[in-house]
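so the lab meeting is tmrw and i was supposed to have these ready like two days ago... anyway. pasting both below. for each one the top line is the aa sequence and the line under it is the structure tokens. i havent really looked at them closely yet so no promises
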Amino acid sequence: MTPTYEEISVREVIANAKMKLRLTNTTEHDLYLEVLANEALDSLDALSQLVKDQCDLTFTNNQAELPKNFSKLLALRLNGCTTTLTNDPIANQLINNCNIAVYVDTKFLDTCGCDTNSWGINNITPYGQGFQINKGFIHFNYSQDVAQVNTAVLAYMGLNVDENGDSVIYRRYERAVSAYVRTNFMLTWAENYNQYVIEKASREWVNQRSKLIGQDVAKDFQNNKYEINKYFNSLLVSRSVNLT
């Protein structure tokens, strides 16, 4: 059984593919094989390729560039922004201690006849303190002076990459990625390989990819089930919920 999170380099995957292609005595095709390996990772679409990440954003003219490995938004917290909303001390405490911005498509809301200058969610977070994402940038809907608020903390799901920005390859990906590399390499030089060998490698890629996706979906289900069970168990024993 292969460890779930043991990492390997793209060079190890290429070496695996070269042995099966009988190319171990040359480095002539290494660059092309590396391109194919990265294509395979891009086509894999396994849940374990994404990790929770967090970064600081500095924005100018109400916008900031998203990190290169960004995939899905989780939350955004503003720094240095205090807002006095009402005389409600709880509402003010929520805003001042944790300045969470909400995703608000103001243009869409305007077409619906909504007043985007009014208070937003539960009369706590104003629409004007929201943001939108477009073409790799976060655009903020601020009405106040940007100099007062120029940094934020972004929590997101991102592609798992190493310090060089390359996709991390887990050892359990190796067989699938190697099969993709071999299939496309043999298709490029189809005159050197018979159809049976090409089709066999192609089927291996399809089967291994499906296996990895299935394993990740099952693991994600178990993790979610565990978290949901913890939540409901906390309600069953919570004195604040179970009133007598």
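ok protien two:
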Amino acid sequence: MNYILDGEIDVGGVKTDARARKYASDNRVSYEEGLRAIVRAQSQQQRQYAAENPGLGMAIQRLGATVAGLPKQSDGSVDIDLALEVINNSEALRELAKEAAGQHLDHLAQHLLGKAHPHEGITYADTLRVVSRDNPAVASMYNGGKATADGLKSILWTIFRYQKQTERTTVRRYSTTGSHISYDANGNEFRTYTLDAVRR
């Protein structure tokens, strides 16, 4: 299990385990009580840090709110060209986009680090290098480059994921070509259909 210790991820809980054992020994309590005390103290530390630094770590949310608040296209979707123009022509918004890009890369790197096994010796720097390589548009924004459509869509994927498609399907009918009845390995019948669509 992974823990957060002193503001950093503790992969596999190795450092947390050592600290819990020391706490248990120093205070003559069980290991479980020591672990609970360490985890509770770390949670309090994180809450205090968040309270003392309001808005820290919220760049993605602030950037998302900015983009979502811009005038939409006629179909209700985000006007990506307008969003890029607004962001790239404002020093403050470019800095916000840079911060959001950094947070996005950090989230990806932390997630990847969390999947690593302690014996592999993988560090946060390793995972950050990998996610930066695999997300060049976001890495470019983080390194001071202009906001791009690919970068913005990666960072604000929740806004763009369910965006309405401009192409609408008006008529669907089952294709009459080919057999649509098949059988699986157990002899169960299942039907598949090919959909022909007329688009406008």
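from a quick look at the 2nd one: Residues 182 and 188 are 8 Å apart (CA to CA). Confidence is low (pLDDT under 50) at residues 164-179, 193-200. will dig more after coffe
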